[in-house]
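Notes from hallway chat w/ T.B., transcribed later so I don't forget. T.B. wanted the structure written out for a chain they're using in a teaching module, and asked if we could keep both sequence and structure tokens in one place. Agreed to drop them here.
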Amino acid sequence: MVKEKLNIPVDVDDCFIEEFRMLRTRVELLCKEKKVIMITSMLPGEGKTTVALNLARSLASVGRRVIFVDCDLRNSKIVSTYKLEEIDVNIQSYLIGEKELDEVILKSKEENLDFIFSVGTALNSAELLESERFRIMLVELKGKYDFIIIDTPPMTRYADATIIAKETGAVILVIQENRVKKRIIREGLEQLKEANSEVLGVVFNKWNK
């Protein structure tokens, strides 16, 4: 297991940090009774991982105990972006019963912020996310953290995000300008409604004002 605390560089400028402060404030107002927040998008490359990571950081910066859970079991963007492939513990090893939860939680150098990463490719990701161990994981994390920020695959690519939505209290949808057709957005919102997960709102990314 990795002993050294993780140091993931901040990759947004001061202007965007202020935007995340505003997002944090909205989340705290809307999520007084909800701890598990899923961040997803319709298509790949819309910036959901960046939003999820920086929302987690912003919440941690004001003293909230936060864990970022990477649930993209097929193609983790945070692992590839920050070259974390050598990490020897991951969510997959917990879900298949090789590791206990405490063994796959990694500490950050940033106070109040922990991580669980997905490393490699799990072709049976849907089955793992529908497992009892995934539900147990969320229950245990709720007892340890104020917020659990879950990064997922895009909704149009796999069923994983919809499966996760069934277990989360709230969803934030990240949409990039001029990339997603309204029909696809409506279909995604309908899937989330059927999963009985509340959509807190939409983050418009790369938006030309």
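Follow-up for T.B.: The first helix runs from residue 14 to 30. Might be a good example for the class.
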